[in-house]
């Protein structure tokens, strides 16, 4: 969609006639909450924000509507929680900013991906139909819903056998997190719901549908998560070979009008205006993904500038002026981040989630009590205990696969481990080893891009984890790169506000809006050569373990998952065999 073709393009002229300053709103939908930020269009100043924790959070153990237990590796959400963010966080952010709502000229949103909503023709989610409220497959499948791994394995195996041209664009493997694997799981585990579903919609597009009344599919998720390459989805023949009933999945459930990033998907409806307290008819930007939309917020719109959005997981995005096949990348999409450039994506499935898991389950109470006594968080306290220890003094190396491996192995049957534990190992030492493991995982990604002809020239961090200076210094030392930091605590929300400004016509394109509204502090952290040398030794051990457990030499992690699922009553027939998983891992060797 072109902004010149949309009535919202005239909104800035209307607004500036009566207001000296205009504003846009960016709404960032995360894993556990949604945040709205009010941004001044002229310079990107963030004037007010508000957060709403999702009332139903993440359903990964039981279905909220019935209390029924969910199988392992499920992660569901309730779509009404996303609407609640618009109803609560947006008006509160405007109030906090102290601005006239009439001066807001546009709104943009971003989402975790791949997060899928099954809906009927008018956009109503299946879980909101009373007859399906007790059916798990009627709910949103969050990005970290990983139980479609068997379907992903079959997609990868068949694509490799057939030599599908799109497979190398995704590093040789399709993830269980993405649209087609989750869609195939829905078909095979609840065919009635699959037939009732009219559209298989990214949450990033569903929320835009709710705001405008118009369904527009964004180019970002279509390319990265929906296997849309060179103007086409996987063929009927390929899909039918997976399952005859899946033959028309792309045509009937997925395909739709695709909007360019930064364009207007439509204008704010009367109903959504009532939710938000904003003017009806203002521009609503095409949906986007939290990681990709953060690039312009960090003024990272040129080739080689890798942005790592570090939160519960980490997504690495970067523009390039060449098309290359990078093993284990999540995808390369023409215009996937900025029009006119190839957008590359990689990622780690668990980062902040790993630290949170450790604190919640492995830290003795006395640590929490001492942190409270000092008036600091448990994360700050653990960091203070370990940050001055020499590199390698803990004698540990960990693998950061507690939520599987997104890049470069693309295998969610892998799991985390810590090697080197002794009876003298302290709690804070394991915590540091987990910090280091996530940095080692990032180094593996950066090295893979460099070796594939897509060099990383700058590393920029956005997201909540940038607030830990020791973690950032650890990354700089391990990567042997300076670390720049976005000068906003809300990079994705700022990026969404930037896209909203373009959709409203305030700037001609995203790079121009980025230059005016983006914020970054360059080279805040630089490598310590002595520490970097010491980390090289630990990284060598990480790399050995990475290949040993991740590329088929020892499939113990997969066997343990098979045993666990069988013990929980899930059976083992639905899981990939060792032979199958070894073949898949070999695709990235």
Automatic annotation (TrEMBL):
Residues 307-504 form the Carbohydrate kinase FGGY C-terminal domain. Coiled coil: none annotated. Pfam families: FGGY_C, FGGY_N. The keyword Nucleotide-binding applies. The keyword Zinc does not apply. Its EC number is 2.7.1.16. It comes from the Bacteria. Residues 23-295 form the Carbohydrate kinase FGGY N-terminal domain. Keywords: Arabinose catabolism, ATP-binding, Carbohydrate metabolism, Kinase, Nucleotide-binding, Transferase. InterPro entries: ATPase_NBD, Carb_kinase_FGGY, Carb_kinase_FGGY_CS, FGGY_C, FGGY_N, Ribulokinase. It catalyses: D-ribulose + ATP = D-ribulose 5-phosphate + ADP + H(+); L-ribulose + ATP = L-ribulose 5-phosphate + ADP + H(+). It is an enzyme of class 2 (transferase). Pathway: Carbohydrate degradation; L-arabinose degradation via L-ribulose; D-xylulose 5-phosphate from L-arabinose (bacterial route): step 2/3. Belongs to the ribulokinase family. This is Ribulokinase. It comes from Plantibacter cousiniae. The gene is araB.
């Amino acid at each position: 969609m072109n902004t010149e073709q949309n009535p919202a393009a005239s909104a800035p002229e209307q607004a500036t006639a009566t207001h000296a300053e205009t504003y846009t709103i960016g709404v960032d939908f995360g894993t556990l909450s949604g945040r709205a930020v009010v941004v001044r269009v002229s310079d990107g100043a963030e004037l007010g924000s508000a957060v709403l924790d999702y009332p139903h959070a993440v359903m990964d153990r039981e279905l909220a509507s019935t209390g029924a237990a969910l199988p392992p590796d499920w992660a569901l959400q309730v779509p009404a929680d996303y609407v609640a963010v618009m109803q609560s966080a947006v008006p509160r952010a405007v109030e906090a900013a102290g601005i006239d709502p009439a001066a807001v000229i546009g709104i943009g949103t971003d989402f975790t991906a791949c997060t899928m909503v099954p809906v009927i023709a008018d956009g109503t989610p299946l879980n909101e139909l009373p007859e399906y409220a007790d059916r798990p497959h009627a709910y949103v499948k969050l990005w970290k819903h990983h139980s479609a791994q068997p379907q992903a394995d079959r997609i990868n195996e068949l694509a490799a056998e057939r030599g599908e041209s799109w497979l190398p664009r995704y590093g040789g493997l399709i993830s269980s997190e993405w649209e087609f694997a989750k869609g195939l799981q829905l078909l095979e585990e609840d065919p009635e719901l699959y037939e009732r579903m009219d559209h298989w919609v990214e949450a990033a597009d569903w929320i835009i549908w709710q705001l405008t009344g118009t369904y527009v599919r964004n180019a970002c998720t279509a390319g990265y998560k929906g296997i849309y390459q060179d103007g086409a989805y996987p063929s009927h023949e390929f899909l039918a070979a997976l399952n005859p009933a899946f033959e028309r999945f792309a045509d009937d459930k997925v395909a739709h009008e695709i909007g360019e990033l930064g364009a207007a998907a439509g204008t704010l409806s009367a109903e959504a205006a009532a939710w938000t307290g904003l003017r009806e008819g203002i521009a609503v930007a095409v949906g986007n993904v939290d990681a990709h939309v953060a690039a312009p917020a960090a003024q990272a719109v040129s080739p080689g500038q890798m942005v790592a959005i570090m939160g519960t997981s980490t997504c690495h995005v970067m523009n390039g002026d060449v098309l290359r096949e990078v093993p284990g990348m999540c995808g390369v999409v023409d215009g996937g981040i900025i029009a006119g450039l190839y957008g590359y994506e990689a990622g780690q499935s668990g980062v902040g989630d790993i630290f949170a898991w450790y604190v919640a389950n492995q830290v003795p109470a006395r640590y929490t009590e001492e942190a409270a006594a000092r008036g600091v968080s448990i994360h700050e306290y653990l960091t203070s205990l370990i940050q001055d220890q020499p590199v390698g003094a803990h004698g540990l190396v960990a693998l950061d696969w507690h939520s599987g491996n997104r890049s470069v192995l693309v295998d969610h049957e892998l799991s985390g481990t810590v090697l080197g534990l002794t009876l003298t190992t302290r709690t804070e030492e394991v915590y540091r080893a987990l910090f280091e493991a996530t940095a080692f995982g990032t180094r593996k990604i950066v090295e893979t891009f460099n070796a594939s002809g897509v060099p990383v020239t700058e590393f920029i961090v956005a997201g909540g984890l940038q607030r830990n200076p020791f973690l950032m210094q650890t990354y700089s030392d391990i990567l042997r790169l300076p670390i720049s930091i976005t000068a906003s605590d809300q990079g994705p929300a700022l990026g969404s506000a930037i896209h909203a400004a373009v959709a409203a016509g305030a700037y001609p394109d995203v790079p121009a809006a980025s230059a005016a509204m983006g914020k970054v502090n360059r080279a805040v952290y630089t490598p310590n050569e002595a520490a970097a040398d010491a980390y090289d030794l630990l990284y060598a051990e990480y790399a050995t373990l990475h290949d040993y457990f991740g590329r088929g030499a020892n499939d113990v992690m997969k066997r343990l998952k098979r045993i666990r699922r069988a013990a929980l009553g899930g059976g083992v027939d639905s899981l990939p065999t060792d032979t199958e998983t070894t073949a898949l891992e070999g695709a990235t060797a």
